């Protein structure tokens, strides 16, 4: 009987490993166990940061100036062009889920980045060819003065454009989550010193992102404006190639996490087992649950013991751990799961509301990449007698600020806050997200006030105000993004769902996707609701002087504030008291007292 129980324990440990492999299970480029001295650390992460900076430089120059190209070269209407951009960006981030799944399940982060990096590169090359050849574009036409007579791109011309665009989307979407995850994999969170370096890495990743965005929105956009979009797309292709060179350059220093196989199978097993055993009654002794015992049949109080004790949330899923009354029958993994499996599934469900609260935030980001660029095109862009600021470069304003603020934040604020909070990141990721969501509301308030001033000056006084009037909305949102984006990535990566780091990071990018899709939906809904027999709606016309973009911005400000209040509720709900095992450790209770408290705790759960 003892031998049979040990065999069951061995099967159980292997099943846990499928969902939660050892944190130290990493290999070098040849598949051999990694060496902590020769592999990993900030040296290895620096090569990934290089790819991140070059990749965002390449795609930001395309995405942020895409609306200008679609209107002027493809001759789409303003609202349709805005939807093309938001749908493209939304697809990029939605495909991050595919990249995370392929990485964790089959390919690993490095090979996923390398393969899909070349896919993205091919898309940039095709975009450059299409922009260079006149026969692949509709006849030239001024959309501002001759909009009704311009021929919209259709047929093979539109097909080539969208194929190239979505090759870029597929490549970038699959590369993005793996850049963050692979860089973070170079550190060991269990080591206190490594945990601090991991926090520094997340800030460094956003710094690399800011550098890439800044160069894209200034130098590359300037090249697009003055040398043509074909040259601009070609520069994006060259920059992406440099990013791939940076990635390959670190191959000898990486510590790689091997793929785990189909990562969704253990999750599905929990739901199936819980449904099949929905009529079961939970035992009064939690040690009777599958996976609650160690080899000496005592409840473990290790660093991972929180995963071995049922939590208060989603108690229905605990029934997946109930063993059959016939102890001699070995049950299928689809009928019996371990506590580790169940607790990890609970974590995945628990983070969904946090994820959902960032969707409105990214809807606001969508406006800064579409309508705010069009605002800038109707303003005075002259900086000197001979130099005009490209409207798409407006988005570089927050990144100029952030390349100074991010290092200061990590160098001074994090150590200072750490003294008071004890948190390795200074403040917890949830607090960081919340502060960012709060700031984003004021970005839209600033945008609404400015647009009212711009429109009144143009319509009533026939004056064109300076483009610098819209600086505040970009600055405020840039600061809010530093808190929200980094906090969200750190929050998801550090969840205790091992072997799914790339996929969890991809979920954070999926928030961008839903935000941009929601932006397209809101534009259509607002036009429909505000339309009348004499008016086509707030955003119906191609001319912002006739539209009411300011009212749309006020709507987004209201939605943003309501979203912040919603986030306060869900973040408080997520921050439960410490697990039972943590309390037991803190109180140094004896084993007999532990067993009694555990049984009492479990009775309350079931």
TrEMBL record:
Spans traversing the lipid bilayer: 44-72, 84-102, 108-129, 159-181, 201-223, 235-254, 260-276, 347-368, 397-417, 470-493, 502-523, 551-570
Principal subcellular localization: membrane
Membrane topology term: Multi-pass membrane protein
Molecular functions per Gene Ontology: transmembrane transporter activity
Signal sequence, start to end: none
Matching CDD domains: MFS_NPF4 (cd17414)
Cellular compartments annotated: Membrane
Keyword Transmembrane helix: yes
A Gene Ontology cellular-component term: membrane
SUPFAM superfamilies documented for this protein: MFS general substrate transporter
Keyword annotations: Membrane, Transmembrane, Transmembrane helix
Keyword Membrane in annotation: yes
One Pfam family in the UniProt entry: PTR2
Family per similarity comment: Belongs to the major facilitator superfamily. Proton-dependent oligopeptide transporter (POT/PTR) (TC 2.A.17) family.
Protein's name according to its UniProt entry: Protein NRT1/ PTR FAMILY 4.3-like
Organism this protein belongs to: Cucurbita moschata (Winter crookneck squash)
